[in-house]
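Reviewers of the previous submission asked for a worked example of the structure-prediction workflow described in the proposal, so we include one complete record here. The input consisted solely of the amino acid sequence. No template or homolog information was supplied to the procedure at any stage.
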Amino acid sequence: MKSKHKCSLLQDSISHLPKLLPNDSLVAKLSRRVNKSFLVSLNHPEVLTYLKSSTAVEKESKRQVDSKYFIIHPLSEFRKYWNIIIFVAIFVHQLLTAFSVGFFMDLSGSTVYTLFAIDGFMCFLLCIEIIISFRSGYIVKETNEIILNPKTIARKYIIHFIPDVITSVPYILIITSLHFEENNSLITESTVVFMLILFILCLYRFNQFHKYCLSIPIMLNWSEKTLIIFTVCLRTFYLWHWTSSIRKLILFYCEQTKTKTNEWEMPREISKFHVRRLDFAFDFDYEDTIEEVIQSDALLFESVSSNYTILNKYTRSLMITLKLALQSGYGNETSDSSVNMLMTSFILFAGWIYCTYILILISNIIIASSVSKNKYQEIMNEIDVFAESKRLSSQLQDKIRIYMERKFQKRYFNEQAINMYVETTAACLQKEIMMHSCSGLVSKVSLFKDLPKSLLENIISCVKFEIYFPDEIIIEANTIGDSMYFIAYGTAVVISTTGQRIQILQDGSHFGEISLLIKGQKRTATVKTLETCEVYKLSQKDFRKVIEPHQDIMKIMEEIAKERLRRMYQQETGSSFERKKSTSSK
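From that input alone, the workflow returned the following structure tokens.
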């Protein structure tokens, strides 16, 4: 058996870097490997989208190597993995920045330094990405042109340079230092404005971050539906997290402008306690007691809230923001502060718009995924109306339903239209589809085993799909045979001319191949279905049209067929002689 040849020509010709010598050091080998990772690579999942062949990839690699500039190709192996690293870095940095904006008043010194260490490393990676971006090529989506000129790259990236630098700073230490240096709980208006500007810049960076986000679905070869779900979930969590953090910041700011503890910030049990204390206070000096009660409640709330962990406060903020965004109610989240009321109104309105967007997106995904099912159901409803108008028997209606279910598998598709599209675009693709469906069946036929692959493909392209119901005759004995059959699914029985059951045919079986080669040959047996059978039929006319140019193969096959017929007749003659002998002896 010949071993399959693996061509190494492509692998050797793609890279145009200088070849290594046998005595080269480990550093030289490592340097060449790193340089090769910067070149265009066939391992990049999008390379064949923009460069249609291995020859085009080779030319692109040569263009990059021959260039006097050091440029990282956008379709290189390095860029494939680096995009994923930057995706993680941006996402973690943005989340930590948002967290520090909203909860910097609650962070302890050790927590701050831990978060700063993580965020500092992420910012280090982002700074490297800024440097790399000046030496990374890009693709013009409108024309599919790959730009490797450093001046053109710099002119394009300079627009994003300043926002990228600003959003790559580890703000955790800066934000928390505002609290620790002053050692008080006051938040100035300038601090709030600074945080909001930072939020807007982060939103800008998040929009740019989308291109890095796509690297994961492309690498994992996700479907369009999975890609949409992934990006929507990511975007939703990001906005939810930032909105919760900004809301918490504004709550801190609003607290400073009030003389009493806000009821909307109190836990429900503290609020009830406050009401009971007020009722009790009416039995005493009204003015003095009310003021004392408010102050004591404030102290009590401050004591209780100080026992909350940072995780409790964060999850509670997420819960309240989600409740507002989903418009399930605002309950105790209102106050007489105009800033807070404005923020609550904005979250309600933005949440309504975003929820509508999500619902439309989900509806489109559901509709798109069930179009074929709905179409199938519509056709079945039409068939029911047709059967009723024609007054067809229930048995015939069941046969129609079984046929439709077997043919379309409860998902409608226009096979003729699909074949027409395939034929107009690529005839070889249609052959490949048929090869996938029938190659396992045809390869079992002894007559076809040694045929060339191209001839076998032409034969398979001629088969036609048919469905037979239980107790239906596929071929009948003593009739002229004009086709061969392959059973894809189902069970049938071979019955002799005397009515005896000779053989059971199941999935993968075939019969009638002699009729393809010998014209006017009568069937020697009847084949009858025992259950619903999915069958592929190859007619004598189509087979001869394909095999006609190969007369030498045709003659060999005819000789094999005639030899098989002689053996069959000898077996039948021998068996009939034995039967006569046994009857005479009796």
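The mean pLDDT is 75. We consider this example representative of the routine output the project will generate in years two and three.
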